[in-house]
Amino acid sequence: MTFLGTGTSVGVPMIGCPCPVCTSSDPRNRRTRSSLYLSTPEVNVLVDTGPDLREQALRERLTTVDHVLYTHDHVDHIVGFDEIRAFCWRREDPMPLHGSPHTLATLERMFPWAFGNTARNYVRPDPRPFHDFEAIHLGKLTAQPFPVVHGASPTHGFLFTLPDGERVAYAPDVKTFPPESLGILHNVDLLIIDALRPDPHPTHQSLDEALALADSLAPARTALTHLTHDLDFATTSTKLPANTFLATDGLTLTFPS
Length: 257
Fold this sequence. Notes:
By secondary structure, the chain is an alpha/beta fold. It has a single domain, classed as Metallo-beta-lactamase, Chain A, CATH 3.60.15.10. The protein is about 20% helix and about 25% strand. The chain has helices spanning about 55-60, 75-80, 85-90, 100-110, 180, 205-215, 235, and strands spanning about 1-5, 35-40, 45, 65-70, 95-100, 125-130, 135-140, 140-150, 155-160, 165-170, 190-195, 220-225, 245. The strands form 2 sheets. Strands 7-8-9-10-11-12-13 form a 7-stranded mixed sheet. A 6-stranded mixed sheet has the order 1-2-3-4-5-6. The longest helix has 11 residues, at about 205-215.
């Protein structure tokens, strides 16, 4: 599992910002827009297609995507849609796109040239709407979408059950969790959650909110993502609880851990 990006919607460094994190020489403070890539012997799964997808794919030398999962339809999670053409050229069948009905409708509205067109130089999507808590079986990898509260757009996280049975929860954009979603997230092997910045935000968890949530859910490990320039990697890392860490672009975790 590779963190393709761990940054907020404007990325880090932020355009025009002279702050210590944006001007840092520490590569761990460079954060492209949040995205995740999971690879098993059977299947390669991309979560979200943000504006930095081309850069991320080249950096990680990605060559294959078998399925794309979408958390929601905000710009920083979908506007790299056109970049998946490169992965479509390597396959004969259309690319399965898994998202809520709302997110898939947004993609079709924003990229009408792709939908319904079977030419090989287009994305050729295969939209597959999912519903809350309905398992998506991708070989021996299972993705279970769960709803979260994040602004006005319907937004989901995913609970991944890996081929060896380990469970990884991914919720990069979230302010609060409905009780039904919290109910499936206790004692996961890895919890990856939004921890935008130290100060409160109306649609994202703050660092303290993320840490409190992790404490209540008791995962084996917690990774914090969707980070702003308010969080310096080295300084913040010294203040985190045991088994909790800031995710960084390019970080790859291998399971079983």
